[in-house]
Design goal:
This protein has one domain. Helices cover 72% and strands 0% of the residues. The two termini are 36 Å apart.
Length: 168
């Protein structure tokens, strides 16, 4: 199990940090892309260092561990950032909306103000954490067939008849 932890930690830290950095975290809007890439990174690193061919189960495990690590980072770091940066992000969204549809700005402003509480940030953080785990597992599952090029027999080859110590 130890050979799965290191790749999962690396993948999880990458997905967790990319998921909490303001503006960079918008990539997660596209089907939790950072989570998928973090799971794929974990499976890539696992395949690269695994002595035997990796299976889909291995990919799911390293992806899941990476997702849990990323989710923990998202909760511990992401919620405070969300609370601190919420008004700045809302201002940017509102200024963009003013250029697109000025008539809807006031409605959007009211909806954003209603969701700008500490409880709302915690609730969103927990929901995001669950999605990070789910999509990281998917990334781990996608990564195995992409990166594992060795064939399926995980047993070592039988000894040759000419080897010393081989009994017939």
């Amino acid at each position: 199990m130890n050979n799965k932890v290191k790749p999962a930690l690396i993948g999880g830290v990458v997905l967790g940090l990319l998921s909490v950095i303001p503006f960079v975290n918008f990539v997660n809007v596209c089907c939790c892309l950072w989570a998928i890439l973090g799971g794929m990174l974990a499976s890539y690193l696992y395949v690269k260092n695994s002595p035997t061919p990796a299976t889909a189960g291995d990919g799911a495990i390293v992806g899941g561990i990476a997702g849990l690590v990323g989710a923990a980072i998202s909760i511990v770091i992401g919620i405070p950032i969300s609370i601190a940066m919420g008004s700045v992000m809302n201002g940017i969204v509102l200024s963009i909306m003013e250029n697109i549809n000025p008539g809807q700005v006031e409605i959007i402003r009211e909806q954003m103000a209603a969701g700008q509480t500490v409880a709302g940030a915690i609730g969103r953080g927990i929901i995001v954490a669950v999605f990070l785990v789910i999509f990281s597992v998917i990334g781990g599952l996608i990564g195995i067939p992409l990166f594992e090029k060795r064939k399926g027999n995980s047993a070592p080859p039988p000894p040759n008849a000419g080897d010393v110590g081989y009994a017939a």
